[in-house]
Structures are given as C-alpha cells and as structure tokens.
Automatic annotation (TrEMBL):
Belongs to the binding-protein-dependent transport system permease family. HisMQ subfamily. The chain crosses the membrane at residues 23-47, 74-97, 103-121, 162-184, 204-224. The keyword Oxidoreductase does not apply. This is ABC transporter permease subunit. PROSITE patterns: ABC_TM1. It is found in: Cell inner membrane; Cell membrane. It is a multi-pass membrane protein. Keywords: Cell inner membrane, Cell membrane, Membrane, Transmembrane, Transmembrane helix, Transport.
C-alpha cells in the first residue's frame, strides 16, 4: 500500500474514515471523563468505608474491592451491561409495565468503568488519608475546628497532594480501558477502528491510527498531570 492510499483511507468526508476515528476519540474522552468523576466520588466513599470502625461497613467495602480487583475488567463490564438490563426489566415487570427498555450503552460503559476505577482509587485515597501527619490534625482540632472543618480545610487538601500521582496513573489506565466498551458496541475509538478495518480490509492502517490517537491522549494527560502536581506541591519543599 502506497502513501497516497493510506492518506485517502484516513481522509475526512465521505471518502475516508478520519472523521469517524475522531468522533470515536471524542466519545472515548467523554467516556473516560464521566467515569473519572463518578469513580472518584465512589472511590472516596469506599475509602471511608475501609477506614470506618463499623465492622459491617468495613467488611462490605473490603468484599467489593476484592471482587472488583480480582475479576477481569472485561468481565466486569459485561456483567454490568447485561445486569443493568436485567434489573430494569425486573423492576418494570414488578410494576406491571411491559417494556423492552435497554440501558444506553454509554451509561452502561460509564457504570462499569466507574466501578472498576473506584475500587483502585479507594486504595489511593485510603493511603493518602493515612499519610496526612497526625500533628496537623491535632493542631487544627486544638484551634477549635469541627471535625467537618478539619476534613475540608486540612485533611482533604493534603490528601489531594498525596493521592494525585496515584490517581493520575489510574486515569491513564482508565483512558485506555475505555477500549473495552467496544465489546458492547459503543462507538468509541477502538470500535471505529475495527469497523473501518473490516470495511476496508486494512486493519494495520486503522489500528496504527487508533494507537497514535491514544498516544496523543495519554501524552496530553501526562502534561496535565505534571502541571497539577506542580500546583499541588506549591509552597512545599521539593
């Protein structure tokens, strides 16, 4: 295959697949961003459960984290996708509603990736929580701050600084794990590359193009991570 034919395959418009790949990349970014937000919120709650002195809550969160971390991510996504459909249909049947409603693929992918991300993020948050010097908490309490004020004004900003490197690494993994959504036919980047390769019988061209786009996304993410870490360390000795 010559360069001209490669460029024609990756061109924009009706003659090429370039716009389809970029559309898939945009869905990939949206999927990763929404899953990140949901996963961070759930991960923080799970970390609280892990640190809770209440045994039933501690046991429940530990069980969840062990299950997610011990199960292939591909399988988790399939379980969520088909499980959500089953739950919705059972609820509708219980209400006497005949419905063929299907959970949107994007929502199912967000749910699955958020569950996976939260299990790992909870460990990062737990470590960051324990890394905050006890003396700072005691000093804040001695000034008359309430427990909520100590958490929001002292502990959480410190936790962010300690957790940021680990969370940034998890974001990189999450960004690439969005490719798992191809199995439920969500038109993210990898699926678009797969469809293009099957239509043109040129898999190498499109998978290399998809790889290049993933590389750009991770490179941009790494630059953002570096800037966030510099901001989080501002005012601290290096």
């Amino acid at each position: 295959m010559n360069n001209e034919s490669v460029f024609s395959l990756l061109a924009f418009g009706d003659t090429g697949w370039g716009d389809d790949l970029l559309a898939g990349a945009w869905i990939t970014v949206q999927l990763a961003a929404v899953s990140l937000v949901c996963g961070l919120a759930l991960g923080l709650l799970l970390a609280g459960g892990r640190l809770s002195p209440w045994r039933p809550l501690n046991w429940l969160t530990n069980t969840y984290i062990i299950f997610i971390r011990g199960t292939p991510e591909f399988l988790v996504l399939l379980l969520v996708f088909f499980g959500l459909d089953l739950v919705v249909q059972q609820i509708a049947a219980g209400l006497g509603i005949q419905s063929s409603f299907e959970v949107p693929k994007f929502a199912a992918a967000v749910a699955g990736l958020s569950l996976i991300f939260s299990a790992y993020a909870s460990e990062v948050f737990r470590g960051a929580y324990l890394a905050v010097p006890t003396g700072q908490i005691e000093a804040a309490t001695a000034t008359g701050m309430s427990a909520g004020q100590v958490f929001w004004r002292v502990r959480l900003p410190q936790m962010w600084r300690f957790a940021l490197p680990g969370l940034a690494n998890l974001w990189m993994v999450l960004l690439k794990d969005t490719s798992l959504a191809a199995v439920i036919a969500l038109d993210e980047l990898l699926r678009q590359a797969k469809v293009a390769s099957e239509s043109t019988l040129q898999p190498l061209v499109f998978y290399l193009a998809a790889g290049a786009i993933y590389l750009v996304l991770t490179a941009v993410s790494d630059i953002a991570r570096h800037r966030l870490e510099l901001g989080a360390r501002r005012g601290y000795a290096r």
